[in-house]
Amino acid sequence: MPTVSMTVNGKAVSAEVEARTLLVQFLRDKLSLTGTHVGCDTSQCGACVVHVDGKSVKSCTMLAAQAEGAKVATIEGLANGTEMHPMQAAFKEHHGLQCGFCTPGMVMSALDLVKHNPSPSEHDVREWLEGNICRCTGYHNIVKAITAGAAAMRR
Amino acid sequence: MHDFHYHRASSLADALKALAAAKDGRLLAGGMTLLPTVKQRLASPSDLVDLAGLTELRGIRAENGGLGVGAMTTHAEVAHSPDVRKTIPVLAALAESIGDPQVRNRGTIGGSIANNDPAADYPAAVLGLDATVVTNKRKIKADDFFKGLFETALGEDEIVTAVHFPRPEKAAYVKFPSPASRYALVGVLVAKTAGGVRVAVTGAGACVFRVKEMEEALAKSFTADAVKGIKIPSKGLNSDLHGGADYRAHLISVLAGRAVTACG
Q1: What gap in Å lies between CA B152 and CA B219, rounded to an integer?
Q2: Residue A117 shares a structural domain with residue A66
Q3: B131 domain residue, yes or no
Q4: Do A69 and A123 share a structural domain?
Q5: Which residues of chain A does B6 touch, with a Cβ-Cβ cutoff of 8 Å?
Q6: A148 is in which domain, residue-wise?
């Protein structure tokens, strides 16, 4: 079996995997980083969004082998010890979740938005969330949380 | 998903060698269509040859007044490129309308046109802007490239390396997207080019196509009114749960008119 190596949340990792192993399976099953979720498994819902070399991607539609040598960031890498990342704190503060299943993908997607657009309008946020589905339909507070999280990150 | 052999090609020659040696090999670009297809077992290739390592297939260059876009350039890169926004803004806007941000971060122009999905956006840009597809072997005019449902002029041992877009005088793309997938139910690109007016339609048929009658009408009078009245026959158009052939035919006329207006 081929070996894949990459950096996940700042830590060098390496494992033998089948070629067909998806990045999300590698993260969840090999590294036990189960914060990244599999919702639809068809690249539509965005529960599996992680960052690869600084860009948000759907890890259910990428092979682990394609991330060879890449820097991967997942929801587990955001907090500083027990202190939540401002975007995570904003989701808590504004109750940007109901069941919470889509939340890791929402937060990772939001951080990619803020990288390009530090002061997103409500419209910008809603448009950006095209690829993140909340089946509780809790979008209203998610949008509020992202707008507030972006503001907190500017401070 | 069936297992397969994965190769990360180090050069075009290396990719061609791995492809030739495979029993049923497929080229992997961004994987936004191929991986879901393999996951659904609609395809079970023996080998995937990843082109991601070929930096020479990436990037956007000014070429003869137009733009050369490397085959492995992502939709996000095209959408955000200052060169594309300045030289051919319709191309940046079209790229920005594909899928969602995460799909745009991975999906590539080469992958999109080689796949030639009937509802994909890029084929409308390539055909409507009279682009030329460059491969490891030759240059193919857009009019000769798209052959039918998921079918192109590409040979088994041919790899798209770039697409050259001449700069249009003016152009606009208007699509009616499926609310779920953002694929075009119908998309129409209208362009005034050096070679005349071109109208390319995606989403409506088995493959992107031009509407000669509209092109002739727009050559005489470049106004929305010139195309609004042109009825497209629904025979042979796509009919599915998103919309019937009659509806799609109607949309072509409506969207063509809007695209002309958007050309300004």
Answers
A1: 29
A2: no
A3: yes
A4: no
A5: 2, 19, 63, 65
A6: 86-154
